[in-house]
UniProtKB/TrEMBL annotation:
Name of the featured protein: Ribosomal protein L18P/L5E
Cross-referenced CDD domains: Ribosomal_L18_L5e (cd00432)
Keyword line: Ribonucleoprotein, Ribosomal protein
Lineage: Archaea, Nitrososphaerota, Nitrososphaeria, Nitrosopumilales, Nitrosopumilaceae
Keyword Protein biosynthesis carried by entry: no
Cellular component per GO, a single term: ribosome
Family stated for the protein in its record: Belongs to the universal ribosomal protein uL18 family.
Length: 112
């Protein structure tokens, strides 16, 4: 077989089910969605991944999602200097506050 193989995916709608308030296009939402995808992939036996963005510009949301995947345990070639600061991952810059650790714990308990 040649080409890419998708073994797991995630959507930010999951966050709403866990009480997420505010935008699902924020850096914390991207991080948690990446974390969810990473946990799902790990549950299916993946250990490594590669981020392919095609011709799209590498954005802070992409970087946050990638950090989520890495924090979930997948090995992805990426330098820590490309990730957003923890304050932004945790949403300290947003007016609508969400408890990212609560949702991360829900992912850990539900996704094996």
């Amino acid at each position: 077989m040649t080409g890419d193989k998708v073994i797991a995916s995630a959507h930010s709608n999951y966050l709403l089910k866990k009480g997420w308030k505010g935008s699902r296009k924020s850096i914390p939402a991207a991080y948690l969605t990446g974390y969810l995808a990473g946990k799902k992939a790990m549950g299916k036996g993946a250990k490594n991944a590669v981020l392919y963005t095609g011709t799209r510009k590498y954005t802070q949301r992409m970087a946050a999602a990638l950090k989520g995947v890495v924090d979930a345990g997948l090995k992805v070639p990426a330098g820590a200097e490309t990730f957003p600061p923890e304050e932004r991952i945790n949403g300290e810059h947003l007016t609508v506050k969400n408890d990212t650790s609560k949702i991360k714990s829900a992912i850990d308990s539900e996704v094996k």
